[in-house]
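Example record

The entry below shows one chain as it appears in the dataset: sequence first, then structure tokens.
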Amino acid sequence: MNISQRGINLIKKYEGLELKAYTCKGGKLTIGWGTTKGVTSGMVITIKQAEEFLKRDIRYFELWVDKLIDVPLNQNQYDALVSFTYNLGEGALKDSTLRKFLNQSRYDLVPAQILRWNKSKGKILPGLVRRREEESKLFAEKI
């Protein structure tokens, strides 16, 4: 499975586009639509490069969702999980209660678990609250 355009738009909406490297609230050097891999201080990219980085990063996180989730997913569920993992990293998904419940086919418990991931460095961030709400709703939305 691959993320849909709806899922890509969700990632873009919450990551925002920055063509010059900056330090995100999580303390990582970031550029483009939330790319952290290979970013150096002072780095500047084009929109085309940002799109290439986004495609590369999405594919990486799709592979992790595919590897870590053992149950069937519909497109909305998949999109929500790729967005979640894109933002938090594969380690968060791997070690989460969310993954445990999902792999037990307890789909109904997943939206509430998504909502729990709204902090950075122990502080609740309004942007993460909004993102998790949207991912949670997307996961629960019937196709």
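Notes for this example: The chain has seven helices and four strands. The longest helix spans residues 47-68.
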